Amino acid sequence: TTAPVWVGAWEPADGAARVRALFAERFGGEPDGTWSAPGRVNLIGEHTDYNGGLCLPFDLPHRTYAAVRRTEGDVVRLVSAQEATGVREIALADVAPGTVQGWPAYVVGVAWALREAGHAVGGFDIAVDSCVPYGAGLSSSAALECAAAVAVDALFGLRLAGTAEEPDDAGRAVLAAACIRAENEIAGASTGGMDQSVSLRGRAGHALLLDCRDGSVRHVPFDLAAHDLALLVIDTKAEHALVDGQYAARRAACERAAEVLGVETLREITPDGLGDALATLAHGTGPVGEGSEDAEVLVRRVRHVVTEIARVEEFVALLDDDRVEEVGEAMDASHASLRDDYEVSCRELDVAVEAARDAGALGARMTGGGFGGSAIALVRAAEVDAVAAAVADAFAAQDLHAPAFLVAVASAPAY
Ligand code: GAF
Protein backbone atom coordinates (compact mmCIF):
# COMPACT_ATOMS: atom_id res chain seq x y z
CA THR A 1 0.00 0.00 0.00
CA THR A 2 0.97 3.61 -0.60
CA ALA A 3 0.97 6.10 2.28
CA PRO A 4 -1.24 9.07 1.39
CA VAL A 5 0.47 12.47 1.23
CA TRP A 6 -1.41 15.17 3.18
CA VAL A 7 -1.25 18.89 2.39
CA GLY A 8 -1.68 20.84 5.63
CA ALA A 9 -2.84 24.43 5.90
CA TRP A 10 -0.59 26.95 7.64
CA GLU A 11 -1.78 28.59 10.80
CA PRO A 12 -2.67 32.19 9.85
CA ALA A 13 0.03 33.59 12.17
CA ASP A 14 2.63 31.36 10.49
CA GLY A 15 1.55 32.40 7.01
CA ALA A 16 1.80 36.06 8.01
CA ALA A 17 5.23 35.51 9.57
CA ARG A 18 6.47 33.81 6.41
CA VAL A 19 5.55 36.70 4.13
CA ARG A 20 6.88 39.27 6.60
CA ALA A 21 10.23 37.47 6.58
CA LEU A 22 10.20 37.19 2.79
CA PHE A 23 9.37 40.89 2.52
CA ALA A 24 12.23 41.92 4.83
CA GLU A 25 14.69 39.64 3.03
CA ARG A 26 13.90 40.76 -0.53
CA PHE A 27 12.78 44.39 -0.13
CA GLY A 28 14.33 45.37 3.19
CA GLY A 29 12.28 47.05 5.91
CA GLU A 30 8.81 46.28 7.12
CA PRO A 31 5.52 45.90 5.26
CA ASP A 32 2.57 48.07 6.27
CA GLY A 33 0.66 44.88 7.02
CA THR A 34 -0.22 41.35 5.95
CA TRP A 35 -3.36 40.10 4.25
CA SER A 36 -4.51 36.70 3.07
CA ALA A 37 -7.23 34.98 1.06
CA PRO A 38 -8.36 31.36 0.77
CA GLY A 39 -8.59 28.85 -2.03
CA ARG A 40 -11.91 27.03 -2.38
CA VAL A 41 -13.69 23.82 -3.16
CA ASN A 42 -17.08 23.78 -4.82
CA LEU A 43 -19.60 21.36 -3.32
CA ILE A 44 -21.82 21.38 -6.38
CA GLY A 45 -22.81 23.67 -9.27
CA GLU A 46 -19.93 23.27 -11.72
CA HIS A 47 -19.70 25.30 -14.93
CA THR A 48 -22.87 27.09 -13.92
CA ASP A 49 -21.41 30.44 -12.89
CA TYR A 50 -20.90 31.84 -16.39
CA ASN A 51 -24.43 30.66 -17.22
CA GLY A 52 -26.05 32.85 -14.58
CA GLY A 53 -26.62 29.75 -12.47
CA LEU A 54 -26.15 28.61 -8.89
CA CYS A 55 -23.06 27.19 -7.22
CA LEU A 56 -22.13 26.22 -3.67
CA PRO A 57 -18.43 26.69 -2.90
CA PHE A 58 -16.73 27.23 0.46
CA ASP A 59 -13.39 28.61 1.59
CA LEU A 60 -10.48 26.28 2.37
CA PRO A 61 -8.21 26.75 5.39
CA HIS A 62 -5.43 26.90 2.77
CA ARG A 63 -4.61 30.55 2.03
CA THR A 64 -2.34 32.82 0.02
CA TYR A 65 -0.53 35.38 2.17
CA ALA A 66 0.75 38.81 1.15
CA ALA A 67 2.94 41.31 2.99
CA VAL A 68 2.43 44.71 1.40
CA ARG A 69 3.83 48.24 1.69
CA ARG A 70 2.37 51.26 -0.03
CA THR A 71 4.91 53.27 -2.03
CA GLU A 72 5.02 56.62 -3.85
CA GLY A 73 4.38 56.62 -7.59
CA ASP A 74 2.67 53.85 -9.53
CA VAL A 75 5.21 51.04 -9.68
CA VAL A 76 4.32 47.65 -8.24
CA ARG A 77 7.26 45.52 -7.12
CA LEU A 78 6.55 41.84 -6.54
CA VAL A 79 8.38 38.88 -5.04
CA SER A 80 7.19 35.35 -4.47
CA ALA A 81 8.50 32.58 -2.23
CA GLN A 82 8.03 30.32 -5.24
CA GLU A 83 10.77 32.23 -7.08
CA ALA A 84 14.16 31.95 -5.41
CA THR A 85 15.44 35.32 -6.59
CA GLY A 86 14.44 38.45 -8.42
CA VAL A 87 11.98 41.29 -8.05
CA ARG A 88 9.37 41.92 -10.74
CA GLU A 89 8.62 45.58 -11.42
CA ILE A 90 5.53 46.73 -13.27
CA ALA A 91 4.28 50.29 -13.72
CA LEU A 92 0.49 50.37 -13.32
CA ALA A 93 0.27 52.79 -16.24
CA ASP A 94 1.68 50.03 -18.49
CA VAL A 95 -0.87 47.41 -17.44
CA ALA A 96 -3.31 46.50 -20.19
CA PRO A 97 -4.70 43.26 -21.65
CA GLY A 98 -1.81 41.15 -22.90
CA THR A 99 1.02 43.13 -21.28
CA VAL A 100 1.72 41.11 -18.12
CA GLN A 101 2.82 37.47 -18.12
CA GLY A 102 2.66 34.94 -15.29
CA TRP A 103 1.51 35.29 -11.70
CA PRO A 104 2.11 39.07 -11.37
CA ALA A 105 -0.88 39.53 -13.72
CA TYR A 106 -3.19 38.43 -10.91
CA VAL A 107 -1.84 41.12 -8.59
CA VAL A 108 -1.37 44.11 -10.89
CA GLY A 109 -4.56 43.13 -12.72
CA VAL A 110 -6.54 43.78 -9.55
CA ALA A 111 -4.90 47.18 -9.02
CA TRP A 112 -5.57 47.99 -12.69
CA ALA A 113 -9.23 46.94 -12.44
CA LEU A 114 -9.77 49.01 -9.30
CA ARG A 115 -8.23 52.02 -11.04
CA GLU A 116 -10.49 51.41 -14.04
CA ALA A 117 -13.41 51.45 -11.59
CA GLY A 118 -12.34 54.91 -10.45
CA HIS A 119 -10.43 54.12 -7.27
CA ALA A 120 -7.19 55.97 -6.50
CA VAL A 121 -4.72 53.09 -6.35
CA GLY A 122 -0.96 53.61 -6.69
CA GLY A 123 2.27 51.66 -6.30
CA PHE A 124 3.18 49.08 -3.66
CA ASP A 125 5.70 46.40 -2.77
CA ILE A 126 4.22 42.93 -2.28
CA ALA A 127 5.71 39.62 -1.09
CA VAL A 128 3.54 36.53 -1.49
CA ASP A 129 3.58 32.93 -0.36
CA SER A 130 0.86 30.30 -0.32
CA CYS A 131 -0.15 26.89 0.97
CA VAL A 132 -2.94 26.60 -1.62
CA PRO A 133 -1.79 23.81 -3.96
CA TYR A 134 -1.01 25.26 -7.41
CA GLY A 135 -2.76 24.06 -10.51
CA ALA A 136 -4.91 21.76 -8.40
CA GLY A 137 -8.26 23.30 -9.29
CA LEU A 138 -8.47 24.84 -5.80
CA SER A 139 -8.33 28.48 -6.97
CA SER A 140 -4.81 29.47 -6.09
CA SER A 141 -5.13 32.28 -8.64
CA ALA A 142 -8.31 33.66 -7.08
CA ALA A 143 -6.64 33.47 -3.65
CA LEU A 144 -3.79 35.63 -4.96
CA GLU A 145 -6.16 38.14 -6.57
CA CYS A 146 -8.30 38.41 -3.46
CA ALA A 147 -5.33 38.77 -1.10
CA ALA A 148 -4.12 41.62 -3.33
CA ALA A 149 -7.62 43.12 -3.36
CA VAL A 150 -8.01 43.33 0.43
CA ALA A 151 -4.45 44.64 0.76
CA VAL A 152 -5.05 47.40 -1.79
CA ASP A 153 -8.41 48.15 -0.20
CA ALA A 154 -6.75 48.76 3.15
CA LEU A 155 -3.62 50.57 1.94
CA PHE A 156 -5.42 53.01 -0.36
CA GLY A 157 -8.40 53.63 1.90
CA LEU A 158 -11.04 52.17 -0.44
CA ARG A 159 -13.15 51.05 2.53
CA LEU A 160 -14.83 48.26 0.57
CA ALA A 161 -13.87 45.11 2.48
CA GLY A 162 -15.00 46.02 6.00
CA THR A 163 -13.15 44.16 8.73
CA ALA A 164 -12.50 40.46 9.33
CA GLU A 165 -15.06 40.58 12.14
CA GLU A 166 -17.58 42.63 10.18
CA PRO A 167 -17.09 42.09 6.47
CA ASP A 168 -18.95 44.46 4.14
CA ASP A 169 -20.61 42.13 1.63
CA ALA A 170 -21.62 44.84 -0.84
CA GLY A 171 -18.09 46.26 -0.82
CA ARG A 172 -16.63 42.79 -1.21
CA ALA A 173 -18.83 42.21 -4.25
CA VAL A 174 -17.16 45.29 -5.78
CA LEU A 175 -13.72 43.89 -4.96
CA ALA A 176 -14.74 40.51 -6.42
CA ALA A 177 -15.81 42.21 -9.65
CA ALA A 178 -12.35 43.82 -9.90
CA CYS A 179 -10.68 40.44 -9.32
CA ILE A 180 -12.84 38.85 -12.02
CA ARG A 181 -11.92 41.62 -14.46
CA ALA A 182 -8.25 41.09 -13.61
CA GLU A 183 -8.56 37.39 -14.35
CA ASN A 184 -10.58 37.82 -17.55
CA GLU A 185 -8.78 40.79 -19.06
CA ILE A 186 -5.24 40.90 -17.65
CA ALA A 187 -4.54 37.23 -16.89
CA GLY A 188 -6.59 36.30 -19.95
CA ALA A 189 -8.68 33.43 -18.49
CA SER A 190 -12.38 33.60 -19.33
CA THR A 191 -13.53 32.21 -15.97
CA GLY A 192 -16.90 32.89 -14.41
CA GLY A 193 -16.48 34.48 -10.98
CA MET A 194 -17.39 31.77 -8.47
CA ASP A 195 -13.84 31.53 -7.14
CA GLN A 196 -13.27 35.24 -6.48
CA SER A 197 -16.77 35.58 -4.99
CA VAL A 198 -16.30 32.85 -2.41
CA SER A 199 -12.76 33.91 -1.52
CA LEU A 200 -14.08 37.38 -0.63
CA ARG A 201 -17.70 36.72 0.36
CA GLY A 202 -17.63 33.27 2.01
CA ARG A 203 -17.95 32.74 5.74
CA ALA A 204 -16.30 30.28 8.14
CA GLY A 205 -18.57 27.35 8.98
CA HIS A 206 -20.74 28.02 5.94
CA ALA A 207 -20.98 27.18 2.28
CA LEU A 208 -21.81 30.09 -0.03
CA LEU A 209 -24.92 29.72 -2.15
CA LEU A 210 -24.05 32.11 -4.97
CA ASP A 211 -26.68 33.12 -7.48
CA CYS A 212 -24.68 34.24 -10.48
CA ARG A 213 -27.72 35.81 -12.16
CA ASP A 214 -27.87 38.72 -9.74
CA GLY A 215 -24.75 38.16 -7.61
CA SER A 216 -26.78 37.57 -4.45
CA VAL A 217 -25.49 35.18 -1.80
CA ARG A 218 -26.79 33.11 1.09
CA HIS A 219 -24.52 31.68 3.77
CA VAL A 220 -25.63 28.10 4.33
CA PRO A 221 -24.41 26.50 7.60
CA PHE A 222 -22.06 23.67 6.71
CA ASP A 223 -20.65 21.78 9.66
CA LEU A 224 -19.75 18.25 8.67
CA ALA A 225 -18.01 17.47 11.96
CA ALA A 226 -21.36 17.78 13.74
CA HIS A 227 -22.51 14.84 11.60
CA ASP A 228 -19.28 12.84 12.03
CA LEU A 229 -18.55 13.49 8.37
CA ALA A 230 -15.62 15.06 6.54
CA LEU A 231 -14.88 16.37 3.07
CA LEU A 232 -11.82 14.74 1.60
CA VAL A 233 -10.13 16.64 -1.23
CA ILE A 234 -8.06 14.59 -3.66
CA ASP A 235 -5.55 16.58 -5.70
CA THR A 236 -4.98 14.25 -8.65
CA LYS A 237 -1.83 16.12 -9.73
CA ALA A 238 -3.05 15.64 -13.29
CA GLU A 239 -1.95 18.44 -15.56
CA HIS A 240 -3.78 18.69 -18.80
CA ALA A 241 -2.77 20.66 -21.83
CA LEU A 242 -5.21 23.00 -23.61
CA VAL A 243 -7.03 23.72 -20.39
CA ASP A 244 -7.73 27.32 -21.22
CA GLY A 245 -8.86 26.48 -24.72
CA GLN A 246 -11.21 23.75 -23.50
CA TYR A 247 -12.70 25.96 -20.79
CA ALA A 248 -13.27 28.79 -23.24
CA ALA A 249 -14.81 26.32 -25.70
CA ARG A 250 -17.36 25.15 -23.09
CA ARG A 251 -18.25 28.72 -22.30
CA ALA A 252 -18.61 29.58 -25.98
CA ALA A 253 -20.86 26.54 -26.54
CA CYS A 254 -23.16 27.68 -23.73
CA GLU A 255 -23.32 31.18 -25.14
CA ARG A 256 -24.14 29.83 -28.58
CA ALA A 257 -26.87 27.60 -27.16
CA ALA A 258 -28.38 30.54 -25.27
CA GLU A 259 -28.41 32.53 -28.50
CA VAL A 260 -30.17 29.73 -30.39
CA LEU A 261 -32.72 29.42 -27.59
CA GLY A 262 -33.23 33.17 -27.46
CA VAL A 263 -32.35 33.55 -23.79
CA GLU A 264 -29.90 35.82 -22.02
CA THR A 265 -28.27 32.89 -20.18
CA LEU A 266 -28.99 29.18 -19.78
CA ARG A 267 -30.30 29.95 -16.28
CA GLU A 268 -33.56 30.86 -17.96
CA ILE A 269 -34.08 27.25 -19.06
CA THR A 270 -35.95 25.53 -16.23
CA PRO A 271 -35.96 21.75 -15.69
CA ASP A 272 -39.56 21.77 -16.99
CA GLY A 273 -38.52 23.54 -20.14
CA LEU A 274 -35.45 21.42 -20.71
CA GLY A 275 -37.10 18.88 -23.02
CA ASP A 276 -38.34 21.59 -25.38
CA ALA A 277 -35.02 23.40 -25.29
CA LEU A 278 -33.10 20.26 -26.14
CA ALA A 279 -35.50 19.50 -28.98
CA THR A 280 -34.98 22.99 -30.36
CA LEU A 281 -31.22 22.55 -30.20
CA ALA A 282 -31.35 19.10 -31.75
CA HIS A 283 -33.41 20.19 -34.72
CA GLY A 284 -32.49 23.84 -34.81
CA THR A 285 -31.25 25.90 -37.68
CA GLY A 286 -29.11 29.02 -37.52
CA PRO A 287 -25.87 28.81 -35.54
CA VAL A 288 -26.39 25.10 -34.87
CA GLY A 289 -25.34 23.06 -37.82
CA GLU A 290 -23.37 25.83 -39.43
CA GLY A 291 -20.86 26.08 -36.61
CA SER A 292 -18.08 23.76 -35.58
CA GLU A 293 -20.05 22.36 -32.67
CA ASP A 294 -22.76 19.99 -33.75
CA ALA A 295 -26.26 20.01 -32.33
CA GLU A 296 -25.79 16.81 -30.37
CA VAL A 297 -22.90 18.35 -28.45
CA LEU A 298 -24.87 21.47 -27.60
CA VAL A 299 -27.71 19.28 -26.34
CA ARG A 300 -25.39 17.58 -23.88
CA ARG A 301 -23.74 20.81 -22.74
CA VAL A 302 -27.11 22.42 -22.01
CA ARG A 303 -28.43 19.29 -20.31
CA HIS A 304 -25.48 19.42 -17.93
CA VAL A 305 -25.93 23.08 -17.05
CA VAL A 306 -29.69 22.90 -16.45
CA THR A 307 -29.60 19.66 -14.44
CA GLU A 308 -26.58 20.86 -12.46
CA ILE A 309 -28.36 24.02 -11.36
CA ALA A 310 -31.27 21.84 -10.19
CA ARG A 311 -28.82 19.66 -8.25
CA VAL A 312 -27.54 22.73 -6.39
CA GLU A 313 -31.11 23.41 -5.27
CA GLU A 314 -31.54 19.79 -4.14
CA PHE A 315 -28.25 19.86 -2.28
CA VAL A 316 -29.08 23.10 -0.48
CA ALA A 317 -32.58 21.85 0.41
CA LEU A 318 -30.95 18.83 2.08
CA LEU A 319 -28.55 21.08 4.01
CA ASP A 320 -31.42 23.33 5.09
CA ASP A 321 -33.17 20.18 6.32
CA ASP A 322 -30.06 19.05 8.23
CA ARG A 323 -29.85 15.95 6.00
CA VAL A 324 -26.26 16.30 4.79
CA GLU A 325 -25.81 12.49 4.87
CA GLU A 326 -28.08 12.38 1.84
CA VAL A 327 -26.23 14.71 -0.55
CA GLY A 328 -24.06 11.93 -1.99
CA GLU A 329 -26.47 11.06 -4.76
CA ALA A 330 -26.44 14.62 -6.11
CA MET A 331 -22.63 14.62 -5.98
CA ASP A 332 -22.45 11.37 -7.93
CA ALA A 333 -24.96 12.61 -10.51
CA SER A 334 -22.97 15.84 -10.87
CA HIS A 335 -19.82 13.90 -11.62
CA ALA A 336 -21.53 11.70 -14.20
CA SER A 337 -22.98 14.77 -15.90
CA LEU A 338 -19.61 16.56 -15.96
CA ARG A 339 -17.92 13.43 -17.29
CA ASP A 340 -20.45 12.36 -19.92
CA ASP A 341 -22.38 15.46 -20.95
CA TYR A 342 -19.97 18.30 -20.28
CA GLU A 343 -16.81 16.27 -20.94
CA VAL A 344 -14.51 18.05 -18.51
CA SER A 345 -13.40 15.10 -16.39
CA CYS A 346 -10.30 13.00 -17.05
CA ARG A 347 -9.01 9.56 -16.19
CA GLU A 348 -7.38 10.62 -12.90
CA LEU A 349 -10.55 12.35 -11.69
CA ASP A 350 -12.68 9.33 -12.61
CA VAL A 351 -10.29 6.96 -10.83
CA ALA A 352 -10.30 9.19 -7.72
CA VAL A 353 -14.09 9.38 -7.62
CA GLU A 354 -14.64 5.67 -8.19
CA ALA A 355 -11.97 4.56 -5.71
CA ALA A 356 -13.37 6.90 -3.04
CA ARG A 357 -16.89 5.54 -3.53
CA ASP A 358 -15.68 1.94 -3.51
CA ALA A 359 -13.96 2.68 -0.20
CA GLY A 360 -17.19 3.92 1.34
CA ALA A 361 -17.54 7.60 0.40
CA LEU A 362 -21.18 8.73 0.51
CA GLY A 363 -20.65 10.65 -2.71
CA ALA A 364 -17.79 11.96 -4.82
CA ARG A 365 -17.25 14.29 -7.75
CA MET A 366 -14.69 16.40 -9.50
CA THR A 367 -14.58 19.99 -8.26
CA GLY A 368 -13.61 23.15 -10.15
CA GLY A 369 -13.04 23.52 -13.85
CA GLY A 370 -11.85 19.95 -14.50
CA PHE A 371 -9.40 18.51 -17.06
CA GLY A 372 -7.27 17.51 -14.07
CA GLY A 373 -7.23 19.21 -10.68
CA SER A 374 -9.13 17.91 -7.69
CA ALA A 375 -12.02 15.70 -6.68
CA ILE A 376 -14.01 15.81 -3.44
CA ALA A 377 -15.47 12.92 -1.49
CA LEU A 378 -17.95 13.06 1.38
CA VAL A 379 -16.76 10.48 3.90
CA ARG A 380 -17.45 9.39 7.46
CA ALA A 381 -14.94 11.19 9.71
CA ALA A 382 -13.61 7.89 11.02
CA GLU A 383 -12.93 6.69 7.47
CA VAL A 384 -10.94 9.65 6.11
CA ASP A 385 -7.60 7.85 6.32
CA ALA A 386 -8.94 4.60 4.92
CA VAL A 387 -10.56 6.30 1.93
CA ALA A 388 -7.41 8.31 1.22
CA ALA A 389 -5.32 5.14 1.41
CA ALA A 390 -7.69 3.35 -0.97
CA VAL A 391 -7.49 6.21 -3.48
CA ALA A 392 -3.69 6.32 -3.23
CA ASP A 393 -3.62 2.56 -3.84
CA ALA A 394 -5.91 2.85 -6.84
CA PHE A 395 -3.63 5.50 -8.36
CA ALA A 396 -0.55 3.34 -7.77
CA ALA A 397 -2.28 0.29 -9.25
CA GLN A 398 -3.07 2.27 -12.39
CA ASP A 399 0.42 3.77 -12.65
CA LEU A 400 -0.86 7.28 -12.05
CA HIS A 401 1.20 9.98 -10.35
CA ALA A 402 0.62 9.87 -6.56
CA PRO A 403 -2.26 12.17 -5.55
CA ALA A 404 -2.21 14.50 -2.53
CA PHE A 405 -4.98 14.88 0.04
CA LEU A 406 -6.43 17.52 2.27
CA VAL A 407 -9.43 17.77 4.54
CA ALA A 408 -11.61 20.76 3.78
CA VAL A 409 -13.29 22.63 6.63
CA ALA A 410 -15.29 25.75 5.72
CA SER A 411 -12.96 28.57 6.69
CA ALA A 412 -12.72 32.36 6.70
CA PRO A 413 -12.73 34.60 3.61
CA ALA A 414 -10.08 37.15 2.67
CA TYR A 415 -8.98 39.65 5.32
C1 GAF B 1 -13.13 27.43 -12.70
C2 GAF B 1 -13.59 28.84 -12.99
F1 GAF B 1 -12.65 29.73 -12.59
C3 GAF B 1 -14.91 29.13 -12.32
O1 GAF B 1 -15.36 30.41 -12.71
C4 GAF B 1 -15.96 28.06 -12.63
O2 GAF B 1 -16.46 28.23 -13.93
C5 GAF B 1 -15.37 26.67 -12.44
O3 GAF B 1 -14.14 26.50 -13.11
C6 GAF B 1 -16.32 25.60 -12.93
O4 GAF B 1 -17.46 25.57 -12.12
O5 GAF B 1 -12.87 27.29 -11.33
Nutshell version of this structure?
Helix content is 41%, strand content 20%.
How does this structure look, described?
By secondary structure, the chain is of the alpha+beta class. It has helices spanning 12-27, 104-116, 140-155, 169-186, 194-201, 243-261, 274-283, 287-290, 295-320, 328-340, 347-358, 384-397; strands at 5-6, 33-42, 54-55, 57-70, 75-80, 88-91, 124-130, 206-211, 216-221, 229-235, 363-367, 374-380, 404-408. The strands form three sheets. It has a five-stranded mixed sheet with strand order 1-13-10-12-11. Helix 3 (140-155) crosses helix 5. The longest helix has 26 residues, at 295-320. Bound molecules: 2-deoxy-2-fluoro-alpha-D-galactopyranose. The site of 2-deoxy-2-fluoro-alpha-D-galactopyranose has 12 residues, from helix 5. 2-deoxy-2-fluoro-alpha-D-galactopyranose (GAF) is lined by residues 42, 46-47, 49-50, 191-195, 368-369.
Features:
single chain, 415 residues, alpha+beta, 13 strands, 20% strand, binds 2-deoxy-2-fluoro-alpha-D-galactopyranose, galactokinase activity, EC 2.7.1.6, carbohydrate metabolism, galactose metabolism, cytoplasm
